[in-house]
Amino acid sequence: MILPKLKKVKLKYHREIPKDYRIKSVTLTNSNGNYYVSILTEFEKEIQKIPSNDKVIGLDFSMSELFISSENQRADYPRYFRMLEKKLKKLQKSLSRKVKFSKNWYKQKIENIKIA
């Protein structure tokens, strides 16, 4: 892949970009010492009209649940952050005890980033 400011960059992709797609933008990100490229593409497609349905539902935001519908249905979603909160607390405490900018501090920091 050739990027304007970086010249040639090796690329390992998992899906072929079809010929009729047009590349709109490329985003390069660094996460935990690994670089990732995100490619935004555009293509033309005719949109099929879906027959309208007059049934309406109302959704209200809730702090304890994600939402409550007008038919009194509640969203039961897993609270991943709450489940990992104790583990994150333990990891942060471990990080604070390490010598700052040491090799073990960097390892612990990467582990914290993966959890949070």
Main beta sheet, described?
2 strands, antiparallel
Roughly how much helix do the residues carry, as a percent range? 25-40%
Determine the number of helices (DSSP H or I, runs of at least 4 residues): 2
Oligomerization state:
single chain
Series of H and E elements: EEEEEEHH
Distance between the termini: 32 Å
Structure commentary:
With 116 residues, the chain is α+β, with helices and mostly antiparallel strands. The protein has helices at residues 80-96, 103-115; strands at 2-3, 7-8, 22-31, 34-42, 59-61, 67-69. Among the domains are: 2-42, no CATH class; 78-116, no CATH class. Strands 1-2 form a two-stranded antiparallel sheet. It has a two-stranded antiparallel sheet with strand order 3-4. Helix 1 runs antiparallel to helix 2 (103-115). The chain is flat, with a radius of gyration of 23 Å. The mean pLDDT is 86.
Q: Could you name the key traits of this structure?
A:
116 residues, alpha+beta, 2 helices, 6 strands, flat, Putative transposase, Transposase
Short description:
The chain has helices at residues 80-96, 103-115; strands spanning 2-3, 7-8, 22-31, 34-42, 59-61, 67-69.
SSE topology:
Layout: E1 2-3, E2 7-8, E3 22-31, E4 34-42, E5 59-61, E6 67-69, H1 80-96, H2 103-115
